[in-house]
Amino acid sequence: xxxxxxxxxRAIENAHAWLAEERRGDPTVSELSIAQIREQMxxxxxxxMAEGSLYDPDLAALAIKQARGDLIEAIFLIRAxxxxxxRLAGSNPVDTGAMVVSRRVSATFKDAPGGQILGPTxxxxxxxxxxxxMAEGEAPPAAPTAPADPVAVPHILGxxxxxxxxxxxxxxxxxxxxxxxxxxxxxxDRALRLxxxxxxDEGFVLGLAYSTQRGYARNHAFVGExxxxxxxxxxxxxxxxxxxxxxxxxLTECETVNQFKGSKTxxxxxxxxxxxxxxxxxxxxxxxxxxxxxxxxxxxxxDFTGAPAQDEEFVxxxxxxxxxxxxLEHIKLPHYVDFQAELELIRSVRAAAFSQMEAAx
Amino acid sequence: MTAMDAYNxxxxxxxxxxxxxxxxxKAVAIPGYQVPFASREMxxxxxxxxxGVQVTAAxxxxxxxxxxxxxxxxxxxxxxxxxxxxxxxxxxxxxEETEAATIIQTRHRIPEAALREGQIMVFQVPIPEPxxxxxxxxxxxxxxxxxxxxxxxxxxxxxxxxxxGEIATAYAYPVRVEGRYxxxxxxxxxxxxxxxxxxxxxxxxxxGREQRIYALPPYTQVESLDFDDHPFVASKADHAxxxxxxxxxxxxxxxxxxQGGRMFVCSDTAFCRSRQGDAA
Lengths: 361, 280
Description:
- The structure holds two protein chains of two kinds.
- By secondary structure, chain A is an alpha+beta fold.
- Chain A has three domains: 12-82, no CATH class; 96-120 and 150-319, no CATH class; 334-360.
- Chain A contains twelve helices and four strands; from the N terminus they run αααααβαααβββαααα.
- Chain A has helices at residues 8-24, 34-40, 42-52, 57-66, 71-82, 157-162, 190-198, 202-213, 282-295, 312-318, 321-329, 336-360; strands at residues 100-105, 222-237, 242-261, 269-278.
- In chain A, strands 1-2-3-4 form a four-stranded antiparallel β-sheet.
- In chain A, a hairpin with a 7-residue loop joins β3 (242-261) and β4.
- In chain A, α3 (42-52) packs across α5 and α7 (190-198) runs antiparallel to α9 (282-295).
- Chain B is of the alpha/beta class.
- Chain B has two domains: 3-136 and 170-224, Rossmann fold (3-Layer(aba) Sandwich); 237-280.
- Chain B is 26% helix and 18% strand.
- Chain B has helices spanning 14-29, 50-59, 77-90, 138-146, 151-164, 269-279; strands spanning 35-36, 65-70, 93-94, 103-107, 120-124, 175-177, 181-183, 202-207, 212-216, 222-224, 251-255, 262-266.
- In chain B, the strands form three sheets. In chain B, strands 1-9-8-5-4-2-3 form a seven-stranded mixed β-sheet. Chain B has a three-stranded antiparallel β-sheet with strand order 7-6-10, with no helix packed on it. In chain B, strands 11-12 form a two-stranded antiparallel ribbon.
- In chain B, α1 crosses α2.
- Chain B is globular.
- The model of chain B has no long low-confidence stretch (mean pLDDT 94).
- Chain B: Catalyzes the breakage of the C-P bond in alpha-D-ribose 1-methylphosphonate 5-phosphate (PRPn) forming alpha-D-ribose.
- Chain B: GO terms for molecular function: 4 iron, 4 sulfur cluster binding; alpha-D-ribose 1-methylphosphonate 5-phosphate C-P-lyase activity; metal ion binding.
């Protein structure tokens, strides 16, 4: 016998209680602290900050804990919180040239002023499981240090720029559009595209970037420079008449040198791709630079080859994982009414076909 | 202090509400036209009705009486969740009675009971663009709307008839508003389409992820697209409700055993219950 679907409210409450219990796991195992996540799951925290578009390691760690380690769910928690925050001010553009770098590598020059700094990278680790970590031993011995080198670490692409070998990156004081305060309207300018890509899903942007390397709008990228470090954030205080530093953030910046454009009348120049992300998130920053470059085909007078990474509307409409996961997962919600309408339709179409077949016999 | 004390009435801050209200006013002024708006991330996922929730939040006043339905029912889980969201954030009165509500947020249905002047229907919309599955590019579909270039849609409907003998769209059946914009009525069954026409209630449509709002002001002419020789038919299951006996309401089909047993019941639970009360 049919029982009307009742008790939705109790079902939801019970589901939440069960979820809370599952989140905690076995209570005889000690609970993760926010500080532990922030300090020991740093790259997860960085991804949540980058795609959540909110620089707050503690809140990102909280979101990861609450989301049971589901990073897209954590990003969603951060986004939903972020959107409620008042806008107190806009900062001045950060100066990545003045970055205090913890990592800085160039794939285009063996050495350059400021040097190559590997920093805390997985690059040359052998991917062998370190079973010693299972033993929860003591802290590793401190890494060797040296006095800070006071030498400036200028952007490597600046050297190419000085010789006119790379397209000029013209500075602009225009206020960029704000994706989180205005609806996305196409075509988008480069500032808006970069804004969208920097909060775009790491996996999606990575896949698109990879597709360009395999020939879908190949753009021959060299990593001219990848740098990770902290920069000062400054805000103009009108009452004071000057800018005040309100804090520091860690950023990853990737500048690619891409194949040149030019003609008989215009001397050839290398072109640029650009990636900038919160935290140490270099896979994302490099991917972003490749996709940025692919999206610039029109401005650089290249052909549209139909490659997904060139298609601004395709890329910008689908790179946001909170939008994507929401719409994808919503198909598990009730659709009884639509499906009933489809059932009636297919029965009607089939009945018409059967009666025609009978008439033919 | 509860967790919700930190939030404004109906969750959204007043600036955001103003932004949404401006979009709503424009939408009412141009019936059926999709107005872009700066949709916010909400504390429930895109796809769960964030567009509808933002429209409701922007319309809600302290003395409103809110009804929330999903699939026609007040007690489906997501309807319960959205109703509770507004109870927590706005402390408004809620009801299951269509007649008693001043704002009705809905997913996939229009109530059976006739609407009246002063009521607001808020529809949750997944894909606001009726031409989307014919042309995936927004830049192109906006141009098509601007030029009222709807030939592609007519061809699609014609091809349906050629292939299946009838128009093979059972829900989200496209309509034309005041002879101008072709509009997606949200995924309501086409059975509900006639209720859009000349309605005394204000109909508002919110698509959060797609950042669009559109509207039908009261007493707007809304026609379902069709052909003279294949007129639109608002179809439903050819049964009466097995609980209340209604023959004119939209029905859900419920599987009752593994022998092909099934029953049909009203999708509008409030309507069904009111009829059971009458019978008792």
